[in-house]
Amino acid sequence: MTRHRVERRLEAMVEGTFARLFKSGLRPVEVGRRLVRVLEAHRSVGVDGKVVVPNHFTVHLSPPDAQRFEEIDRTLKRELTEAVRQHAQDEGYRFAGPVEVDLITDDQRRTGTIDVVAIMREDTAGAAGSLVNTAGQRRDLTEQITTLGRNPESTIILMEKAASRDHAEIHRRSDGVHLIDKGSTNGTWIGDHRIVERQLNDGDEIRIGTTVLRFDAS
Question: What is the pTM of this model?
Fold first, then answer.
């Protein structure tokens, strides 16, 4: 995601339900711009040659700005987190762990100014990535085994005629996250390839019938 796309995402939120809150003063798009700048400033190269970026961001807000943002705190943090995640994915960056954005009140800050502290924080006990559907809804992979299918007891229930009752499973292992087809009738696909078992890579698109789920490793 380019910086312009980050801005468009946040501006769309502001122009909707919460427009009345941001007629003046600090706007979410300014916070988004700063997050991207800080992320870019703290890039480093890992031992495998891939670019690693911070995954935990703390945004310091003045008391008046924090009070205005309080009404949309959860929505704003979700949108900022998604914007950071998408920017890194588009640039080919890798996170050390799950992405988090916290908003805190800083009594020392002047109204309209912000500070962002970014760190790399590993979290081996947290989610092993997530699945995102075409509507942008995200499901963290916190279980050791995630089941997919039409079975009402599946972790992720697929309302999809092409899906089998017990269609596929996602396993968390020491070497990564693996997608396993459970002998389904119509198959489990990654891109144009039908798979039996495969280790998932960041950005892989899992296709079951017309259902498409993108795997995000962070």
Answer: 0.60
Q: Which two structure tokens, joined as six digits, stand for 33? A: 């711009």
pLDDT tens, position by position, 177-204: 899 999 999 999 998 999 999 999 888 9
How far apart, in whole angstroms, are the C-alpha atoms of residue 214 and residue 85? 13
Residue that is written with structure tokens 């800080």 in the block: 38
Q: Residue 129 half-sphere exposure, CB side, CA atoms within 13 Å?
A: 26
Cα angle 14, 15, 18; round to 5: 50
**Among the CATH numbers 1.20.1560.10, 1.10.600.10, 2.60.200.20, 3.60.15.10, which is that of 129-217?**
2.60.200.20
CATH topology for 2-119 is: hypothetical protein PF0899 fold (3.30.2320)
> Integer distance in angstroms from the first to the last C-alpha of the chain?
16
